[in-house]
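User: Fold this; tokens only.

Assistant: Input:
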Amino acid sequence: MKLIFPETKEEFLQASLKAYFHGVNMFGGCCGTTPEFIKLLSNKLRNKPPILRKTVDRYYLSTRTKTIDINKLSKPIFIGERINPTNKKKLQEELFKYNLSSVKEEARSQVQSGASILDVNVSIHDVNEEKLLINAVNQIQEIVSVPLCIDSSNFCAMEQAVKNCTGRPIINSVNGEYERLDLILPIAKKYGTVLIALTSNDKGIPKTMEDRLDIAAKILDYSSHFGIERKNIIFDYLVLAVSSSPDQVQETLKAMKKSKILYPECKLVLGISNISFGLPSRQTINSTFLKMAISAGLDFAIVNPHENWNIDNPIARNLLNNKDKGAVKYIETFASFKECKSRTSTKKITLNQQLYYSILNGDKESVSNVLDRIIKYININDLFKVVNDNVLKALSVVGEKFASKNFFLPQIIMSAQAAQKAFVTLKSVLSNKSKEKKYMVENKIIMATVKGDMHDIGKNIVGIVLESYGFKVIDMGINVDSRSIIKKAEEINPIAIGLSALMTTTMLEMEKIIALKNANHIPTKVIVGGAALTKKFADDIGADAYAKDAIDAALCINEFVKIKNM
């Protein structure tokens, strides 16, 4: 058997010249060519100037076998979000064993359902993420031909994964923090990737359109120093949950519309599912919001492609336009929510029961009135017990109803705010009584979302509930580094430090904080929680407790108080 190269050097020359006249300006030979091939080509092209290419509106991403022009695809372009271990116990267990069976199946099924790009996040506790992410990228590329979006907070793992992408991927993501920009922009430049840029910084997600656009401008200016063109940056103007931040939906949409005017070269992306957190029939909200985002100029949508994205519901639109306060109409329609007791019937029940139902139904307007009437007839020494028995009992029932999906996030927030109002009244009445005042003031709790994580919905709810239980909450905010938390703990000697993380990529920060606390011999207890966490993870990192929700956190910290006072 003789291996031959059937093409002649003249045919090779003609093919190369055709490429030259289309604008190619580097040539060489590969398997089968000989020095004669290269000599012939060199004689023809040596010292010729490059052909000026025609300016065309193209936006390429690529894989080993496929190049796609983003500008030719209908909008929005779906980025599949399903390769992510958050809240996926089976996937977490497989990844822990470096088993990528579900990852590959999810990749295949998402592409079949319409995903044009796949987001890849395999970050979990106690694995070598660099090894795991490289393996995931390599194996996904073997079975699908769509571009990848590399999602990791581990910069070494991110770079190696990008390096192993056979084509042009997206990096997810950078934000307005100089520390993160300095680490990721060189990777994006070196490998020629597209980059998702979040309009947040070390202070979190800005409340206004103007502040988000200011961060976008900062990112563009800083990126230019690394030689990264504007067209290679995709802005994410970040959507918050409508259940807890209804006024922020329009700020996101306004920022997107303005961005299209200010920075037309930059594409827009959103992670859609966060909009519906804590509400029933989430896909109704997700799909309706997607329609609104498309109208605002959305190019890419990070979504579950298996869902129905054709829904456009007027009641959901009303909620998204902030015309349904407390999501009352939406919840009545999609969850058959009913108050546990009609407010009109409270005249027929005792004052203690009225207090209970005011908390249960989130009726903060009636709380002070009911308490004022209770104070008139009750012995001051029994007041704290009355409030405790009724307020905390109501909050416990609220937690149970939330767990069974009879209540939703707006109900949790309203009930917690009503309870908080009750305790504010209680503290003012008991301000001169040393025992109660000591309980209120000395049992401080630090709350913080860990470094790298910008999510604060869960933390804020826990904070409100803890305050409603009578604790003094010091909320340090989001993206808080370990040393700041430990320094604050040394200053105020809290009964507990509450740490929150939503993402698998940031939850490892908790272990650093606990290690630093122990190294500094701080006796404060640490309680952890968040969507990606489990009790096993809490035990593994040495946390004193794991709370699955706000009520659970309050009960855990009450136990800390009992132990302290023993």
